[in-house]
Design goal:
CATH topology of the largest domain: Spore Coat Polysaccharide Biosynthesis Protein SpsA, Chain A
Structural class: alpha/beta
Number of helices: 12
Strand order of the largest sheet: 6-9-7-8-10
Number of strands: 17
Strand content: 25-35%
CATH architecture of the largest domain: Alpha-Beta Complex
Distance between the termini: 37 Å
Radius of gyration: 21 Å
Protein backbone atom coordinates (compact mmCIF):
# COMPACT_ATOMS: atom_id res chain seq x y z
CA UNK A 1 0.00 0.00 0.00
CA UNK A 2 1.26 3.49 -0.79
CA UNK A 3 2.43 5.54 2.19
CA UNK A 4 -0.09 8.33 1.56
CA UNK A 5 -2.93 5.81 1.61
CA UNK A 6 -1.71 4.44 4.94
CA UNK A 7 -1.59 7.96 6.34
CA UNK A 8 -5.11 8.69 5.08
CA UNK A 9 -6.56 5.66 6.83
CA UNK A 10 -4.60 5.85 10.10
CA UNK A 11 -7.05 8.30 11.64
CA UNK A 12 -9.76 5.64 11.59
CA UNK A 13 -7.76 3.07 13.56
CA UNK A 14 -9.24 3.07 17.03
CA UNK A 15 -8.00 1.30 20.11
CA UNK A 16 -11.41 -0.33 20.52
CA UNK A 17 -11.39 -1.90 17.04
CA UNK A 18 -10.95 -5.68 17.19
CA UNK A 19 -10.59 -8.37 14.53
CA UNK A 20 -11.28 -12.11 14.79
CA UNK A 21 -9.89 -14.35 12.06
CA UNK A 22 -11.24 -17.88 11.79
CA UNK A 23 -8.43 -20.17 10.64
CA UNK A 24 -9.27 -23.66 11.83
CA UNK A 25 -10.33 -25.42 8.64
CA UNK A 26 -8.61 -28.40 7.05
CA UNK A 27 -9.28 -27.33 3.46
CA UNK A 28 -10.04 -30.85 2.23
CA UNK A 29 -11.63 -29.50 -0.96
CA UNK A 30 -8.12 -28.37 -2.02
CA UNK A 31 -6.52 -31.76 -1.40
CA UNK A 32 -3.81 -32.73 -2.22
CA UNK A 33 -2.45 -29.15 -2.34
CA UNK A 34 -3.96 -28.54 1.10
CA UNK A 35 -3.09 -31.18 3.73
CA UNK A 36 -3.93 -31.92 7.35
CA UNK A 37 -0.54 -30.72 8.55
CA UNK A 38 -0.60 -27.57 6.38
CA UNK A 39 -4.11 -26.57 5.29
CA UNK A 40 -4.94 -23.92 2.72
CA UNK A 41 -4.81 -20.87 5.03
CA UNK A 42 -1.07 -21.43 5.45
CA UNK A 43 -0.36 -21.84 1.72
CA UNK A 44 0.89 -19.34 -0.84
CA UNK A 45 -1.60 -19.93 -3.66
CA UNK A 46 -0.38 -17.31 -6.10
CA UNK A 47 3.40 -17.33 -5.66
CA UNK A 48 3.44 -13.91 -3.95
CA UNK A 49 5.43 -15.08 -0.94
CA UNK A 50 2.41 -14.52 1.36
CA UNK A 51 -0.03 -17.15 2.57
CA UNK A 52 -3.78 -16.55 2.68
CA UNK A 53 -3.53 -16.03 6.45
CA UNK A 54 -0.70 -13.51 6.08
CA UNK A 55 -2.64 -11.65 3.39
CA UNK A 56 -5.67 -11.52 5.69
CA UNK A 57 -3.65 -10.09 8.58
CA UNK A 58 -2.01 -7.53 6.26
CA UNK A 59 -5.48 -6.45 5.12
CA UNK A 60 -6.56 -5.48 8.64
CA UNK A 61 -3.33 -3.97 9.99
CA UNK A 62 -4.16 -0.37 8.95
CA UNK A 63 -7.53 -0.33 10.77
CA UNK A 64 -7.09 -2.69 13.74
CA UNK A 65 -4.19 -2.51 16.23
CA UNK A 66 -2.12 -5.69 15.93
CA UNK A 67 -2.59 -6.42 19.64
CA UNK A 68 -6.38 -6.50 19.02
CA UNK A 69 -6.25 -9.21 16.35
CA UNK A 70 -7.23 -12.70 17.48
CA UNK A 71 -6.87 -15.86 15.43
CA UNK A 72 -9.07 -18.84 16.26
CA UNK A 73 -7.63 -22.10 15.02
CA UNK A 74 -7.24 -25.76 15.88
CA UNK A 75 -4.67 -26.44 18.57
CA UNK A 76 -2.52 -28.37 16.06
CA UNK A 77 -1.96 -25.18 14.03
CA UNK A 78 -0.89 -22.81 16.82
CA UNK A 79 2.83 -23.01 16.01
CA UNK A 80 2.22 -22.42 12.27
CA UNK A 81 0.17 -19.31 13.04
CA UNK A 82 2.91 -17.87 15.26
CA UNK A 83 5.58 -18.76 12.70
CA UNK A 84 3.73 -16.97 9.91
CA UNK A 85 2.64 -13.96 12.03
CA UNK A 86 5.66 -13.42 14.32
CA UNK A 87 4.42 -10.15 15.84
CA UNK A 88 1.42 -11.91 17.41
CA UNK A 89 1.66 -12.90 21.05
CA UNK A 90 0.92 -16.52 21.95
CA UNK A 91 -2.25 -15.53 23.81
CA UNK A 92 -3.66 -13.95 20.62
CA UNK A 93 -4.03 -17.44 19.13
CA UNK A 94 -7.20 -19.03 20.51
CA UNK A 95 -6.99 -22.80 20.16
CA UNK A 96 -10.06 -24.97 19.70
CA UNK A 97 -9.58 -28.48 21.08
CA UNK A 98 -12.36 -29.74 18.78
CA UNK A 99 -14.02 -28.51 15.59
CA UNK A 100 -17.46 -27.11 16.40
CA UNK A 101 -18.32 -24.82 13.43
CA UNK A 102 -18.48 -21.03 13.56
CA UNK A 103 -20.90 -20.25 16.41
CA UNK A 104 -18.74 -21.68 19.26
CA UNK A 105 -15.64 -20.28 17.56
CA UNK A 106 -17.13 -16.78 17.54
CA UNK A 107 -18.58 -17.09 21.05
CA UNK A 108 -15.12 -18.00 22.34
CA UNK A 109 -13.53 -14.99 20.67
CA UNK A 110 -16.25 -12.67 21.99
CA UNK A 111 -15.63 -13.94 25.53
CA UNK A 112 -11.92 -13.20 25.19
CA UNK A 113 -12.53 -9.72 23.74
CA UNK A 114 -14.82 -8.94 26.68
CA UNK A 115 -11.90 -9.75 28.99
CA UNK A 116 -9.53 -7.59 26.88
CA UNK A 117 -11.70 -4.57 26.13
CA UNK A 118 -12.18 -1.74 28.57
CA UNK A 119 -15.82 -1.13 27.83
CA UNK A 120 -16.95 -0.83 24.20
CA UNK A 121 -15.50 -2.82 21.31
CA UNK A 122 -16.10 -2.72 17.55
CA UNK A 123 -15.49 -6.18 16.11
CA UNK A 124 -15.01 -7.57 12.61
CA UNK A 125 -15.05 -11.35 12.10
CA UNK A 126 -13.58 -12.80 8.90
CA UNK A 127 -12.26 -16.05 7.49
CA UNK A 128 -8.58 -16.61 6.74
CA UNK A 129 -9.10 -17.90 3.19
CA UNK A 130 -10.75 -15.00 1.36
CA UNK A 131 -9.16 -13.18 -1.54
CA UNK A 132 -9.84 -9.44 -1.84
CA UNK A 133 -8.48 -7.54 -4.81
CA UNK A 134 -9.41 -3.96 -3.83
CA UNK A 135 -8.12 -3.85 -0.26
CA UNK A 136 -8.35 -0.11 0.33
CA UNK A 137 -11.99 -0.15 -0.75
CA UNK A 138 -12.52 -3.13 1.57
CA UNK A 139 -11.12 -1.18 4.52
CA UNK A 140 -13.39 1.76 3.71
CA UNK A 141 -16.41 -0.56 3.86
CA UNK A 142 -15.29 -2.03 7.19
CA UNK A 143 -14.76 1.39 8.78
CA UNK A 144 -18.16 2.53 7.49
CA UNK A 145 -19.67 -0.51 9.21
CA UNK A 146 -17.72 0.25 12.39
CA UNK A 147 -19.28 3.74 12.42
CA UNK A 148 -22.73 2.22 11.90
CA UNK A 149 -22.54 -0.36 14.69
CA UNK A 150 -21.15 2.24 17.12
CA UNK A 151 -24.41 4.18 16.72
CA UNK A 152 -26.87 1.31 16.23
CA UNK A 153 -27.71 -1.99 17.94
CA UNK A 154 -27.09 -4.00 14.78
CA UNK A 155 -25.46 -7.17 13.51
CA UNK A 156 -23.94 -6.44 10.11
CA UNK A 157 -22.74 -8.79 7.40
CA UNK A 158 -21.19 -7.91 4.06
CA UNK A 159 -23.08 -9.02 0.96
CA UNK A 160 -21.19 -9.23 -2.32
CA UNK A 161 -22.90 -7.96 -5.44
CA UNK A 162 -23.16 -11.12 -7.58
CA UNK A 163 -21.57 -11.25 -11.01
CA UNK A 164 -22.83 -14.70 -12.00
CA UNK A 165 -25.31 -17.37 -10.84
CA UNK A 166 -22.84 -18.99 -8.41
CA UNK A 167 -23.93 -22.26 -6.78
CA UNK A 168 -21.00 -22.44 -4.37
CA UNK A 169 -22.04 -19.52 -2.16
CA UNK A 170 -24.95 -18.87 0.17
CA UNK A 171 -27.13 -15.85 -0.59
CA UNK A 172 -28.65 -13.00 1.41
CA UNK A 173 -31.95 -11.44 0.38
CA UNK A 174 -32.41 -7.82 1.45
CA UNK A 175 -35.75 -6.14 2.09
CA UNK A 176 -35.20 -2.76 0.46
CA UNK A 177 -35.52 -0.99 3.82
CA UNK A 178 -32.25 0.88 3.43
CA UNK A 179 -30.48 3.19 5.87
CA UNK A 180 -27.94 5.75 4.68
CA UNK A 181 -24.72 5.41 6.64
CA UNK A 182 -22.64 8.22 5.14
CA UNK A 183 -23.46 11.91 4.91
CA UNK A 184 -23.15 11.91 1.13
CA UNK A 185 -25.63 9.04 1.02
CA UNK A 186 -23.44 6.78 -1.09
CA UNK A 187 -23.59 3.60 0.98
CA UNK A 188 -26.94 2.19 2.06
CA UNK A 189 -27.22 -0.46 4.77
CA UNK A 190 -30.03 -2.89 3.93
CA UNK A 191 -32.23 -4.80 6.35
CA UNK A 192 -31.82 -8.55 5.81
CA UNK A 193 -34.96 -10.40 4.73
CA UNK A 194 -33.59 -13.96 4.51
CA UNK A 195 -30.48 -16.11 4.37
CA UNK A 196 -30.47 -18.99 1.88
CA UNK A 197 -28.21 -22.01 1.51
CA UNK A 198 -26.17 -22.74 -1.61
CA UNK A 199 -28.77 -22.93 -4.41
CA UNK A 200 -29.12 -25.00 -7.55
CA UNK A 201 -28.12 -23.33 -10.81
CA UNK A 202 -31.77 -22.69 -11.73
CA UNK A 203 -32.47 -21.01 -8.39
CA UNK A 204 -29.21 -19.03 -8.54
CA UNK A 205 -30.26 -17.63 -11.93
CA UNK A 206 -33.56 -16.49 -10.43
CA UNK A 207 -31.72 -14.83 -7.55
CA UNK A 208 -29.59 -12.84 -9.99
CA UNK A 209 -32.62 -11.81 -12.05
CA UNK A 210 -34.53 -10.59 -8.99
CA UNK A 211 -31.85 -8.04 -8.08
CA UNK A 212 -32.37 -8.31 -4.32
CA UNK A 213 -29.93 -11.11 -3.54
CA UNK A 214 -26.26 -10.83 -2.58
CA UNK A 215 -23.54 -13.41 -2.04
CA UNK A 216 -23.02 -14.23 1.65
CA UNK A 217 -19.39 -13.36 2.38
CA UNK A 218 -19.30 -14.68 5.96
CA UNK A 219 -17.76 -11.39 7.12
CA UNK A 220 -19.49 -9.91 10.19
CA UNK A 221 -19.27 -6.57 11.98
CA UNK A 222 -20.90 -5.83 15.33
CA UNK A 223 -20.32 -4.26 18.72
CA UNK A 224 -19.48 -6.39 21.72
CA UNK A 225 -22.71 -5.38 23.46
CA UNK A 226 -24.87 -6.28 20.41
CA UNK A 227 -23.36 -9.73 19.85
CA UNK A 228 -23.47 -10.53 23.58
CA UNK A 229 -27.17 -9.68 23.73
CA UNK A 230 -27.89 -11.65 20.54
CA UNK A 231 -26.07 -14.76 21.78
CA UNK A 232 -27.91 -14.63 25.10
CA UNK A 233 -31.28 -14.27 23.35
CA UNK A 234 -30.89 -16.76 20.49
CA UNK A 235 -28.23 -19.19 21.73
CA UNK A 236 -28.58 -19.00 25.53
CA UNK A 237 -27.04 -22.40 26.29
CA UNK A 238 -23.93 -21.59 24.27
CA UNK A 239 -23.69 -18.11 25.80
CA UNK A 240 -23.95 -19.57 29.30
CA UNK A 241 -21.11 -22.00 28.67
CA UNK A 242 -18.71 -19.12 28.04
CA UNK A 243 -20.18 -16.88 30.75
CA UNK A 244 -19.38 -19.62 33.25
CA UNK A 245 -15.69 -19.12 32.47
CA UNK A 246 -15.67 -15.32 32.29
CA UNK A 247 -13.34 -15.00 35.28
CA UNK A 248 -10.61 -17.14 33.70
CA UNK A 249 -10.64 -15.55 30.24
CA UNK A 250 -7.27 -13.99 29.53
CA UNK A 251 -5.62 -15.83 32.44
CA UNK A 252 -3.45 -18.94 32.68
CA UNK A 253 -6.58 -20.94 33.58
CA UNK A 254 -8.33 -20.17 30.27
CA UNK A 255 -6.76 -23.02 28.31
CA UNK A 256 -7.79 -25.67 30.84
CA UNK A 257 -11.33 -24.28 30.92
CA UNK A 258 -11.59 -24.34 27.11
CA UNK A 259 -10.13 -27.84 26.90
CA UNK A 260 -12.87 -29.16 29.16
CA UNK A 261 -15.83 -27.02 28.05
CA UNK A 262 -15.39 -26.44 24.30
CA UNK A 263 -15.99 -30.04 23.15
CA UNK A 264 -19.41 -29.88 24.86
CA UNK A 265 -20.52 -27.03 22.56
CA UNK A 266 -22.96 -27.85 19.75
CA UNK A 267 -21.57 -27.93 16.21
CA UNK A 268 -23.56 -25.11 14.62
CA UNK A 269 -22.89 -22.17 12.32
CA UNK A 270 -23.38 -18.56 13.41
CA UNK A 271 -25.67 -18.06 10.39
CA UNK A 272 -28.06 -20.83 11.40
CA UNK A 273 -27.80 -20.39 15.15
CA UNK A 274 -28.09 -16.60 15.33
CA UNK A 275 -28.11 -14.50 12.15
CA UNK A 276 -31.22 -16.18 10.69
CA UNK A 277 -33.14 -15.57 13.93
CA UNK A 278 -32.15 -12.06 15.01
CA UNK A 279 -34.28 -9.09 13.97
CA UNK A 280 -31.49 -6.50 13.93
CA UNK A 281 -29.45 -7.97 11.06
CA UNK A 282 -28.28 -5.69 8.25
CA UNK A 283 -26.27 -6.27 5.10
CA UNK A 284 -23.90 -3.82 3.44
CA UNK A 285 -23.95 -4.41 -0.35
CA UNK A 286 -20.28 -4.39 -1.35
CA UNK A 287 -18.04 -4.78 -4.37
CA UNK A 288 -14.29 -4.94 -3.75
CA UNK A 289 -13.17 -7.96 -5.75
CA UNK A 290 -14.04 -10.65 -3.19
CA UNK A 291 -13.72 -14.40 -3.58
CA UNK A 292 -14.08 -17.19 -1.08
CA UNK A 293 -11.20 -19.45 -2.06
CA UNK A 294 -13.14 -22.50 -1.00
CA UNK A 295 -12.99 -24.51 -4.19
CA UNK A 296 -10.77 -25.21 -7.17
CA UNK A 297 -13.45 -23.47 -9.22
CA UNK A 298 -13.10 -20.22 -7.30
CA UNK A 299 -9.30 -20.43 -7.54
CA UNK A 300 -9.59 -20.97 -11.30
CA UNK A 301 -11.91 -17.96 -11.63
CA UNK A 302 -9.50 -15.65 -9.76
CA UNK A 303 -6.29 -16.80 -11.49
CA UNK A 304 -4.55 -15.49 -14.59
CA UNK A 305 -5.23 -17.59 -17.69
CA UNK A 306 -3.46 -18.19 -20.99
CA UNK A 307 -5.09 -17.84 -24.41
CA UNK A 308 -6.64 -21.31 -24.04
CA UNK A 309 -8.02 -20.47 -20.58
CA UNK A 310 -5.54 -22.73 -18.79
CA UNK A 311 -4.29 -21.77 -15.32
CA UNK A 312 -0.77 -22.73 -14.22
CA UNK A 313 0.28 -22.23 -10.59
CA UNK A 314 3.78 -22.64 -9.09
CA UNK A 315 5.14 -24.83 -11.89
CA UNK A 316 5.90 -24.69 -15.62
CA UNK A 317 3.50 -26.18 -18.14
CA UNK A 318 3.20 -26.92 -21.85
CA UNK A 319 -0.31 -27.43 -23.23
CA UNK A 320 -1.28 -29.23 -26.43
CA UNK A 321 -4.88 -29.30 -27.59
CA UNK A 322 -5.92 -28.53 -24.01
CA UNK A 323 -8.38 -25.95 -22.72
CA UNK A 324 -9.77 -24.69 -19.41
CA UNK A 325 -7.48 -26.66 -17.08
CA UNK A 326 -5.97 -25.68 -13.75
CA UNK A 327 -2.55 -27.22 -13.07
CA UNK A 328 -0.50 -26.91 -9.91
CA UNK A 329 2.70 -28.87 -9.29
CA UNK A 330 5.64 -28.19 -6.96
CA UNK A 331 7.96 -25.37 -7.96
CA UNK A 332 10.59 -26.53 -10.46
CA UNK A 333 8.33 -29.20 -12.00
CA UNK A 334 7.08 -29.25 -15.58
CA UNK A 335 3.61 -30.46 -16.60
CA UNK A 336 3.05 -31.54 -20.21
CA UNK A 337 -0.69 -31.73 -20.83
CA UNK A 338 -2.21 -33.09 -24.04
CA UNK A 339 -5.89 -33.46 -24.92
CA UNK A 340 -7.38 -32.39 -21.58
CA UNK A 341 -10.35 -30.05 -21.32
CA UNK A 342 -11.60 -28.53 -18.05
CA UNK A 343 -9.54 -30.66 -15.66
CA UNK A 344 -7.82 -30.15 -12.31
CA UNK A 345 -4.27 -31.54 -12.23
CA UNK A 346 -2.60 -31.17 -8.84
CA UNK A 347 0.45 -32.90 -7.40
CA UNK A 348 1.80 -32.35 -3.91
CA UNK A 349 3.67 -34.45 -1.36
CA UNK A 350 3.35 -37.76 -3.13
CA UNK A 351 -0.25 -37.41 -4.32
CA UNK A 352 -1.34 -36.75 -7.91
CA UNK A 353 -4.97 -35.73 -8.47
CA UNK A 354 -6.55 -35.63 -11.93
CA UNK A 355 -10.22 -34.69 -11.77
CA UNK A 356 -12.80 -33.02 -13.99
CA UNK A 357 -13.45 -29.46 -12.83
CA UNK A 358 -17.19 -30.07 -12.92
CA UNK A 359 -16.77 -33.02 -10.52
CA UNK A 360 -14.64 -31.25 -7.94
CA UNK A 361 -17.32 -31.74 -5.26
CA UNK A 362 -16.15 -35.37 -5.21
CA UNK A 363 -12.69 -34.39 -3.97
CA UNK A 364 -13.86 -34.52 -0.34
CA UNK A 365 -14.86 -38.14 -0.95
CA UNK A 366 -11.51 -38.88 -2.59
CA UNK A 367 -9.87 -37.36 0.50
CA UNK A 368 -11.96 -39.53 2.85
CA UNK A 369 -11.31 -42.65 0.79
CA UNK A 370 -7.54 -42.03 0.82
CA UNK A 371 -7.63 -41.56 4.60
CA UNK A 372 -9.47 -44.87 5.06
CA UNK A 373 -7.57 -46.91 2.48
CA UNK A 374 -4.06 -45.70 3.33
CA UNK A 375 -4.35 -44.99 7.09
CA UNK A 376 -4.06 -41.23 6.66
CA UNK A 377 -0.63 -41.47 5.00
CA UNK A 378 -1.65 -39.08 2.20
CA UNK A 379 -3.92 -36.71 4.09
Amino acid sequence: MKQENINNINHIMKKNNYCVIMAGGVGSRFWPFSRNDKPKQFLDFFGTGRSLLQMTIDRFRPIVPIENILIVTNVMYRDQVLEQIPDLQTNQVLCEPARRNTAPCIAYAMARIKAMAQGKANIVVAASDHLILQEEKFREVITTCFDFIEKNDALVTLGMKPTRPETGYGYIQFSGEGLEVKDEGVEVMQKVKAFTEKPSLEVAKKFIESGDFLWNSGIFIWSLSSIEAALQEHMPELAQKFLSGAEVMGTEQEEAFIQEMFPTCPSISIDYGLMEKAQNVYVMPSDFGWSDLGTWGSLYDMSQKDEAQNVTLHCDASYYDSHGNIVTLPKGHLAVIQGLKDYIVSEANGVLLICKREDEQQIRQFYADAEMNFDGKYN
